[in-house]
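Standup notes
- DV: blocked on the single-chain target, sequence here:
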Amino acid sequence: MYQQGLIPGLGGPFDTVTEFFKVWAAKVEFGMSNEQLRAVSGLYAAEIILLVTFFIKSINKLAGRLSVRDYGLFLFCYGDFGYNNVIIDNKYYVLGVID
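- DV (later): unblocked, structure below
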């Protein structure tokens, strides 16, 4: 069993999935400013900016329903789980996941 500790920029560890998503939604920042999005999105800029904002607000609103299991033990789902993305020790204990 592994325990997630402090997540840089978010905090933790979190007792519930709801708590994690609420903190994430409060602290997340999209990688581009609205001005940058306008510059690269052309005709669709207004819609894309609205959707980015809506997505973050939706995560906050739906935080309590995003997982079927709100309290630990939490399952780990990772779509790029290759040998080159896992750090193990000499006894094959997972020390970290990269990516």
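- Follow-up: The CA atoms of residues 38 and 86 lie 38 Å apart.
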